[in-house]
Design goal:
By secondary structure, this protein is an alpha+beta fold. The chain has helices at residues 14-17, 21-28, 116-122, 136-143, and strands at residues 32-37, 40-53, 80-85, 89-96, 103-114, 160-163. The chain has a six-stranded antiparallel sheet.
Length: 176
Amino acid sequence: MDGALTGAGDALPRSFFARPVLDVARDLLGRVVVHRTPEGVVAVRLSEVEAYAGEDDPGSHAFRGRTPRTEVMFGEAGHAYVYFSYGMHWCTNLVCGEEGSASAVLLRAGEVVDGLALARSRRVAARRDVDLARGPARLAQALGLARAQDGADVCAGGALRVLAGTPVGDGQVVWG
């Protein structure tokens, strides 16, 4: 494993994601998303996420049903749903729940814990390191995520993975 990732633990199994969206969202806090590219590795410890309950949630891309864009959301838990937002930014969700439910958790913010120089090179506009993965578009950019990662299986040991990290205690979590 690379530098700071030594203590990040094993990749999360599919069973972690194959649960209700609110449970997965809560339990993703403190986990580490790792993306290995030809340029190197960047890892982000998640500090903010947002749950979307598929066709029952007006805020979800799946609210109006299955489309070519949202097909991944209706699939097997443990896959990345990467989409272009507002015609300018990539954002990433992790599919959870039962196949066909279209539930997913948006990765909203985190702290770069490995690959800081590479993350900086991808976010030249960020003035401070703390801002490198602050916000869903910045997080995806720091990790180097784009259309090619849409549908990536984060449980299969590939280039995009979610590691156990250090779960966050209930006293440190704010729900809204």
